[in-house]
Specification:
The chain is an alpha+beta fold. It is built from 22 helices and seven strands.
């Protein structure tokens, strides 16, 4: 069991929530870092970038991620049973680079069917050598993990530096880019991704205070959003404020500021109204209109404010998902999570909406509510027959997040996985929805998500039913379906699962000593 001193503190967790990153350092022997770097150098210059195979090609890398400092950080953010994702990459920034790869600001391609503000995913940027600004460390833009749109020059650019073993734990959706390596040295950075397997039931870090304390010097730009993430990570629901006396003059002023020309003023007003909760119910219609605000940061504040304003706020968000613009409906789907159990009835009703995009958003939000939405399991199983691929995929993921309540989810997920494998043809693997068509690195999107959900909840079901399905998934055309199936079998640990897994590993194992020039 990890020593609590190796877990992140409340202050570090709030830094992660508000700014999207935490810088840490592995105290490992310099000889280990040097040996790994030498091996990486040889691989890159003799064979090229091995991509996902960087770990089996240079197995000593695993030592970096097995240390208590790394396990403590990942446990704090993703829970004790987090999973190292099969996609991993070594970024090589050449000396004297003028246009290094990936110099454009970007988010990494997402693995779920929608990005999540709540940390279901995280990444670590790991440096095997001392890294200075001249060497071109990966630049990050703190606080931008919640934004679909790039905020440009308004954002702060940070270049994390430090001694060998420096690592940056980042929210998966952080905007980042490569910076210029103006030195005469090679710069290597190991980017590994990790996924949460279940929603938090209690804090998994060194938690001391229930109160959310904003990091010193951090502008309070998204108090309701941050509170939502903070409470979710603590296994709690943010409860709407009610019954408190409100300064009517201040309330009227805030309502006026919702119409201000300055987006920052509108955003601050929305955030403050959310903190007032149900006492600010008169402002609900105005906040609903802000979901279409051209400034994303303002619209997010309105969405999360409404989510924390009781039934009235939840109803406004549901109305937006039901009949608002596509842009506003997506923002409302994030905010409605804050309504917790009171949002479930309207989300279940939205699962029957005539528009597939609206049904998909409802399924997404129900999944984010986790076990609280256990009554949605039956309706979500019905959604597995939906004509819209995005609806089906969101329903599959939601079932894995909610759990095998009543023993229904695992059999349904097993069936949909097997059906997706049966349909793995060139034509069927073409995504039917523009939203998921962007994920070209996932060939079988339904099978991928079903395998991930079975990794999360498969051991709660009948192993005699789950194991044969996972065995079939080991022959999928999608490499990530195969990877999830192998991991799910390792979690089941039945004799049959272990036997199947051993046979699979015999034919798929990687020899790290075999090189391009090898003759035997």
């Amino acid at each position: 069991m990890l020593d609590s001193k190796l877990l992140l503190t409340d202050e570090q967790m709030m830094h992660f929530i508000a700014k999207g990153y935490v810088v840490l350092r592995n105290e490992l022997p310099q000889q280990l870092h040097q040996r790994v770097m030498n091996e990486i150098y040889e691989v890159f210059h003799e064979e090229g970038n091995p991509g996902n195979n960087i770990l089996p090609r240079v197995p000593d890398i695993q030592q970096f991620f097995d240390t208590p400092i790394v396990r403590g950080a990942l446990t704090s953010v993703l829970g004790p049973d987090y999973y190292m994702h099969p996609h991993r990459h070594c970024h090589y920034n050449r000396p004297k680079s003028e246009t290094p790869g990936g110099v454009k600001w970007h988010k990494d391609g997402y693995w779920s069917s929608m990005r999540s503000h709540r940390p279901w995913w995280a990444m670590i940027f790991y440096y095997t050598h001392d890294v200075t600004e001249e060497l071109g460390p990966t630049a990050i833009m703190p606080g931008t993990q919640y934004y679909e749109r790039f905020i440009g020059d308004r954002g702060e650019t940070l270049l994390p530096t430090g001694k060998a073993g420096t690592m940056v734990l980042v929210h998966f959706d952080m905007w980042h880019r490569a910076s210029l390596n103006v030195s005469n040295l090679d710069r290597y950075m190991l980017k590994f991704q990790f996924v949460r397997l279940r929603a938090p039931e209690q804090p998994s870090w060194n938690h001391q205070s229930n109160e959310m304390k904003i990091p010193e010097g951090t502008p309070a730009v998204h108090l309701n959003l941050w509170q939502d993430v903070w409470d979710w990570l603590r296994g709690e629901q943010t409860m709407p404020q009610s019954g408190a006396a409100v300064d009517e003059a201040r309330l009227k002023q805030l309502q006026q500021e919702l119409n201000a020309e300055d987006a920052a003023v509108r955003g601050r007003a929305a955030d403050e109204l959310g903190l007032l909760g149900e006492a600010a119910a008169s402002c609900i219609p105005a906040l609903g209109r802000l979901l279409n605000d051209p400034e994303e940061t303002t619209a997010l504040n309105a969405a999360y404010a409404l989510g924390h304003m009781g039934f009235g706020g939840v109803a406004e968000l549901a109305n937006c998902i039901r009949g608002g613009t596509t842009l506003a409906a997506g923002r409302a789907a994030y905010g409605v999570q804050g309504g917790g159990a009171m949002a479930i009835p309207v989300l279940l009703e939205l699962l029957r909406h005539q528009d597939g995009k609206r049904r998909a958003l409802a399924a997404f939000a129900l999944g984010m509510l986790g076990y609280t939405a256990k009554e949605a399991v039956g309706p979500l199983i019905d959604c597995l027959q939906d004509q819209d691929e995005w609806v089906r995929r969101n329903a599959v993921e939601a079932l894995g997040m909610i759990g095998n309540t009543g023993g229904q989810a695992v059999p349904a997920l097993t069936k949909v996985l097997v059906e997706s494998l049966r349909d793995e043809t060139a034509e069927s693997l073409k995504a039917s929805d523009m939203y998921v068509a962007t994920q070209k690195y996932i060939l079988n999107k339904i099978g991928y998500t079903a395998a991930l959900s079975l990794l999360r909840v498969g051991k709660e079901g009948d192993a005699g039913q789950v194991v044969p399905a996972l065995e079939q998934a080991l022959r999928s055309k999608d490499r990530y379906v195969r990877a999830y199936a192998a991991e799910a079998l390792s979690h089941l640990r039945t004799d049959e699962a272990v036997d199947i897994l051993i046979r699979f590993m015999r034919s798929s194992r990687w020899c790290p000593d075999t090189k391009k020039a090898s003759t035997f």
